[in-house]
Amino acid sequence: MNHTILAISLSSIANSMHQSLQALLGDGFALTATEMLIQGLSLIVFLVILCFYLGWMERRVAAFMQIRLGPNRVGPQGTLQIIADTIKLLLKEGLTPNSSDKFLFNLAPMIMVITSFLVVAPLAFSKDFQLWDINIGILYVSAVSSISVIGILMAGWSSNNKYSLLGAMRSGAQLVSYELSIGLSLISIVILTGSLQMSDIINSQSNGWWLFKGHIPVIISFVIFIIASTAEINRAPFDLAEAEQELTAGFHTEYSGMKFAMFLLSEYINLFIASAIAATIFLGGWMPLHLGNFEAFNHVMDFIPGFVWFMGKTMFIIFIIMWFRWTFPRLRVDQLLNLEWKYLLPISMINTIFITIIAIYGWHF
Amino acid sequence: MFIKEYFSTIYRSIKSLLTGMKLTGYYFTHLNKIKTEEYPDNRATLKMADRFRGEVVMPHNENNEHRCTGCQACEIACPNGTIKIITKQEILADGKKKKRIDSFIYHHDLCTLCNLCIVACPSDAIVMAQTFEHAVYDKKLLKKILNNPDSKIMEGVE
Question: How far is CA A309 from the centre of its chain?
Fold first, then answer.
């Protein structure tokens, strides 16, 4: 498996940094603290830059699908537009409404961003390049990501605004229902792999991705995962929590300046996380594409670094999510709950039974 | 029966959603279909639509002759008093007196470009021009006299 053409991989950089820091600081508390600081800072910088890029990509993709051009003035192809927007948001006044619950109002955006950053921890960006390879990775992801509903409810409640409260309540109903489908589609891969650990799940796909190995039931659970996680991250066609036409901006109506930017940041990080998890458990994370016995083809695929594979797959899924965001109309609240309780949940339950049968008899490749 | 309906609903929804995604996917991959006019950049090649109305103008021919008889139908038709026609009496060669326009005053700042004056004109003396970029710093510049100095009425227009 280790035919990487690049002698420098992300994990080797991390290892050499670890060794040089060990030589410098010894094995004590200072080493741990420094490494944690470096990891945290590089993660924040990576995710913020990624969100800049995703914000630009969203607007360009939306524009192209609506036969428009989108931002194309600031920088080449408008790539610096989002930096201009950030400077604007930084300079704006962060208003706190007079009759709001000021402590909760200011706490809510922080909870949203912290939750988003927490979920990134068990993601494997490349081979042996992972912040925290916890043995209950999938469980951790689905547990921690549902904390974000507290941030949304907190923002809606403390704004003391009917639109915000309505948006937050809708979001609560939505997250509670769609959590089930996400859980069941994650479980389908856990059944096939027999492990909740991210690295185990990725290693089980070294001879082919689960999407191809698991026959139709895995494809169904992949589709259900994409639909349910779109609902989970409050994006159109499930953006009832911030339905512009009905609720101005939903739970973040009262927010402005940097606090609003933090909601935006957490939305894009959540988009990245949902896509990265789908890419990891269904499309094999950083695993290159291998086709059965075509040795030459497999060798060529191994030359592409794992990080490129991971980001490529993630970007592909992000593009699909954006694609149907800019195609489909928004669901009504009753349609939203119908879709989950009458369609997605029964289908994913029956699907889980099929996957269990496949796993028991070993019918997957 | 219920089961059949259930699955046909799923089938129809997926089909209609995929139809929508096919259309947006088509637009995404065919960037030459983009409708956006990059206005200040394409000023030289900009093509205005036929129905675009910029301002009222009075066309003159090469002999500095217009078609306006001074009947004031446009002034009456205008809903917000944009047009003011000042007339004069002209003594023709055979000694008869005839009404002629002295000046056709058009207040561009009051005009809503509703086209009613053009419809009302019985002799097609005024038309809508497709000019644009009318912003000026002085409001006086928007009060325009449409007939050229020393212009005459065209032969045969009554």
Answer: 16
| Structural domain includes residue A102 | yes
Which pLDDT score is estimated for A3? Answer: 46
Do residue A64 and residue B27 have CB atoms under 8 angstroms apart?
yes
Instruction: Name which residue leads in pLDDT, A293 or B53.
Output: B53
Instruction: Give the number of C-alpha atoms closer than 13 A to the C-alpha of residue A41, restricted to the C-beta side.
Output: 6
**Position B15 confidence tier, pLDDT thresholds 50, 70, 90:** very high
Q: Is residue A315 part of a domain?
A: yes
B58: nearest Cα among B158, B143, B144: B144
Question: Residue A27, exposed/middle/buried by CB under 10 A (0-12, 13-18, 19+)?
Answer: exposed
Structure confidence at residue A292 (pLDDT): 67
Residue with tokens 């695993």: A287
Q: Which of B21, B23, B33 shows the shortest C-beta gap to A324?
A: B21
Among the listed residues A227, A151, A215, A150, the one whose alpha carbon sits nearest the alpha carbon of residue A184: A227
If one looks up domain B48-153 in CATH, what number appears?
3.30.70.3270
Q: Which residues of A touch B38 (CB under 8 A)?
A: 69
Phi/psi class of residue A70: alpha, beta or left (left: φ > 0; alpha: ψ in -120 to 50)?
left
Tokens read off for A365 = 């490749």
- Are the C-beta atoms of residues A16 and A7 closer than 8 Å to each other? no
Q: Quick check: B96 pLDDT over 60? A: yes
In whole angstroms, give the CA distance from residue A316 to residue A324.
Answer: 13
Distance set, CA A51 to CA A45, A123, A267 (Å):
10, 17, 9
d(CA A243, CA A235): 10
Average pLDDT, whole number, for chain A? Answer: 83
Residue B18 has pLDDT above 80, yes or no: yes
Summarize the confidence of residues A314-318 as an average pLDDT: 91
Number of domains, chain A = 1
The amino acid at residue A352 is T
pLDDT digits (tens, 9 = 90+) for A240-289: 777 677 777 777 888 888 888 888 888 888 889 889 999 888 888 788 77
What is the Cα–Cα distance from A192 to A204, expressed in whole angstroms? 9
Question: What is the β-pairing status of strands B152-153 and B65-66?
Answer: parallel
Could you tell me if residue A38 is inside a domain?
no
Q: Is the CB of A316 inside 8 Å of chain B's CB atoms?
A: no
CB atoms within 10 A of CB B17: 14
Which residues 12-41 on chain B approach chain A with CB closer than 8 angstroms? 17, 20-21, 23-25, 27-28, 31, 33-36, 38
Tokens for A342? 């009458």
**A16 within domain boundaries:** no
The residue segments making up the domain with residue A295 are 79-361
ipTM, two decimals, is 0.72
Estimate to the nearest angstrom the gap between the alpha carbon of A234 and the chain centroid: 12
